[in-house]
Amino acid sequence: MVEGGSEGLKQWWKEQSRKVRQDLPLQVAMAEHLIACDDHHTAQQIVIDGLKRHYDERLVLLMPHLAAGEPASLEKLLRQLLKQHDNSALLHSTLGQLMLKQGEWQQASDAFAAALALRPDAFDYAWRADAFDHLRQPEEAAQMRREGLLLTLQTPS
User: How far apart are CA 143 and CA 92, in angstroms?
Assistant: First the structure.
């Protein structure tokens, strides 16, 4: 990466064996580096390929950071993963974040509601409030902000 930037990193990746390219920690590190190099397209392909082979939350966590301009493939993959892992708050939240980026406010709100039903999270409350703002539902947005704030004020037992 130091010598050839993003292109050098991609070339190095292509030269690796299939076994190396399918190593999950390496896929995560590679995608992170590509995102840092602003090569979101290649990073997205690594994330998608990795998740198609094996579900791993480390790869899912990278999805909101991708800006490849091809959200349809991410959305399709997330919906497929949700069929297998419907009880994953992370997948629902990630789908909600993707829907927010696309301006699909109702779908985003629904995804965050599903995530919040599985576990409370201040970020999901805030993102759902944003979706409600765009849907012109100020009372619901205020309620989400209150619940998110109350959650952050709770002290761990």
Answer: 20
Name the token pair of 20. Answer: 């190396």
Are 96 and 56 contained in the same domain? Answer: no
Residue 143 sits in which domain range?
A: 74-157
Per-residue pLDDT reduced to its tens digit, 7-39: 888 888 888 888 988 889 999 999 999 999 889
Give yes or no for a contact between 98 and 63, defined as CB atoms under 8 angstroms apart. yes
Q: Which of 69, 86, 104 is the last residue of a domain?
A: 69
Distance (Å, rounded) from C-alpha 12 to C-alpha 25?
Answer: 16
Q: Is the dihedral of CA 55, 57, 59, 63 positive or negative?
A: positive
The tens digit of pLDDT for each residue in 67-93 reads 877 889 999 999 999 999 999 999 999
